Amino acid sequence: MSEPAAAPESEAASEPAAASEPAAVRGDDAALTARAADLDARDPLAKVRERFTLDEVTYLDGNSLGALPSGVGPRLLDVIEREWGSLRIRSWDESGWWDAPERIGDRVGALIGAASGQVVVGDSTSVNVFKAVVAAARLAGPERDEILVDEATFPTDGYIATAAARLTGHTVRPVPASAVADAVGPRTAVALVNHVDYRTGRLHDLPGTTAAAHAAGAVVVWDLCHSAGALPVGLDAHGVDLAVGCTYKFLNGGPGAPAYLYVRRDLQPRFDSPLPGWTSHADPFGMAAGYTPADGATRGRVGTPDILSMMALDAALDVWDGVAVEEVRAKSLALTDFFLDCVAALVPAGQVESVTPAAHAERGSQISLRHRDAGAVMAELIRRGVVGDHRRPDILRFGFTPLYTRYADALRAARVLGEVVR
Amino acid sequence: MSEPAAAPESEAASEPAAASEPAAVRGDDAALTARAADLDARDPLAKVRERFTLDEVTYLDGNSLGALPSGVGPRLLDVIEREWGSLRIRSWDESGWWDAPERIGDRVGALIGAASGQVVVGDSTSVNVFKAVVAAARLAGPERDEILVDEATFPTDGYIATAAARLTGHTVRPVPASAVADAVGPRTAVALVNHVDYRTGRLHDLPGTTAAAHAAGAVVVWDLCHSAGALPVGLDAHGVDLAVGCTYKFLNGGPGAPAYLYVRRDLQPRFDSPLPGWTSHADPFGMAAGYTPADGATRGRVGTPDILSMMALDAALDVWDGVAVEEVRAKSLALTDFFLDCVAALVPAGQVESVTPAAHAERGSQISLRHRDAGAVMAELIRRGVVGDHRRPDILRFGFTPLYTRYADALRAARVLGEVVR
């Protein structure tokens, strides 16, 4: 159990001196090294990396599990030892446990363009997809019988939408996310779309798709798992109806950290949850036999909040102090541009192909490269201390978290990838 | 409950207790003090208290939030700093994160009479009630249209059952838990019953009700929130179909710790979840568009498990090492008997009335006392360091956790209650 973190090759092994490398590659590497050093030196977010616990591993999997913000451990120990151990039930009031879903929801909301009072944290993304899809179908009214689902969606969204449709009597129709705007019609109750495709890293058109759905009278649910914390989402600005997302990727909330649900303020009085648990009641401690929903975002709550995971998320969000999502987006694009340049220069031609759009307007905060032997290549990358992940059958996925990823990390990943595939 | 000798009420309610106590009470207190000391000295579980972080407070609210097992803090810090901070995504395999819901589920199962492979931990109790009620309705078949719900249930069960019935087309009929066995009939699909009533502490007849439900062809779902960890449940022995429960009461898992779902082994192949999230898929990392359920208890999972809360629960369960639920039950009954004796001796006659059954076969691990001014009385008890809770309108609730509650605690609570109401 006390195995050390992925043992990277010695620095020497990843230096561009290998005899097998062509001279042109060595020259490119030197130029890219200088460019990385310059970019890192001028990076306005460079100091934010110090708020995380990191080591010599080149960690490019923050789009799966964000790195540890250093404040989480001390905060959780205090939550456990003092708030739980000493104050015990008093902490529901005195330590802000009861209101944590709304309070932390507001902090997440600030990062996705939602004014306060519209986001609650809790449950998993899957459970929130269920709440959102059923509630959206109810908002759309009984005369609409179709739920459109982004066909390349992270599978749980499709599974849950199908399960919801079975219960509500709707039909699920998968369409490409980019075609949702054209596919919505008078039968469409709900469109469930991923903002960024988990596999390809493609960023979909949230404003345009939302507007098209509204023009057709449909309700749109956005899954923000791969965009929240990586780029501006603008939920309020674009009039999004409902949204869900996880907090363990670019929000660094920890493994399986609670997800969240956004319900636009004017829809809240009509938000009719399929999971009306006691903490969403207008008077939860009245413990009445009949259900009366609370006002506001609280209506999206279900059961007793999982305080330890939630307070870890709360502490993790402190890394955002003084950071604007806009500058995160600027660095994300610069990082992924630079990584693509490094790959072009250092990986032998024909070995990998990017499936992530080159256009900034269509790119999230990851680069996905296709390689015929992606599983073995990623295993070897990880063995050499470059951690991305593999998505079957042939995708190498590299996530870029601007809060802690350096240009030097992007360079090193491309360099080691070149060594591995050469 | 035997009444103490009649004593004149003192008007000097704010004077030191000793001065206002009748001589008979002082004599009773001395005898009870000796009896508590003897009982504590002979308690085979006395040493288990050392596994918890406790202080001078008389904590009788473990049926709301269990006290802190001392091993949780160090374990969570290791999960955060090493497993998340250093191993990061490798911990899904190397630190046992991925299988935690089943592995910890088996540990919970051992405490509720479930052989391994039938319990998964995750989500809130409310979400698990939803899974269980919808799946039970599907198991019962389309010709049965009624869901019976224990009318005095903790409200979330009723809210969620009603929400589930709305989606599945069933009708909810509330009946007293003790009448469920007589109420089940050919229309009954599901009976959702609390093993112990949260308000009165009444223990319901799980074997008899289950047998009656089965004789009528219905599927029974038990809510074990107030029995798991306090008394033997015997899920397998009594042929229970489905069960749910929380882990933050007598299982001491921490605030909002993950709940669990039991699905009897032979029902698992037909368990048809309304929340088929990706982690319940037969091949979750295949990320196929179509859903194929996993075998076994895994089918009850939904989204990514909340690892921090889950690992806290895992550490908390270590306090059960070498402890049998049967000896916990024996001490629970002895503690609550003793508390009732102390109340009878030390609380002026007519002030409080127990609403918890005197018969052992009908008593959970709490004593609920009715008092016309329960809210103010409990506030004053808490101010004096005796922590129970108040359930509206007129119930003083005292929970007894045999792993850490001493007979001296029961005596002190009754003594201070006598002082407060005198």
UniProtKB/TrEMBL annotation, chains A, B:
Keywords: Hydrolase, Pyridine nucleotide biosynthesis, Pyridoxal phosphate. GO terms for molecular function: kynureninase activity. SUPFAM superfamilies: PLP-dependent transferases. InterPro entries: Kynureninase, PyrdxlP-dep_Trfase, PyrdxlP-dep_Trfase_major, PyrdxlP-dep_Trfase_small. Its cofactor is pyridoxal 5'-phosphate. It is an enzyme of class 3 (hydrolase). Residues 1-29 are annotated as: Disordered. It catalyses: L-kynurenine + H2O = anthranilate + L-alanine + H(+); 3-hydroxy-L-kynurenine + H2O = 3-hydroxyanthranilate + L-alanine + H(+). Pyridoxal 5'-phosphate binds at residues 125-126, 154-157, 223, 226, 248, 278, 304. Catalyzes the cleavage of L-kynurenine (L-Kyn) and L-3-hydroxykynurenine (L-3OHKyn) into anthranilic acid (AA) and 3-hydroxyanthranilic acid (3-OHAA), respectively. This is Kynureninase. It comes from Streptantibioticus parmotrematis. The lineage of its organism: Bacteria, Bacillati, Actinomycetota, Actinomycetes, Kitasatosporales.
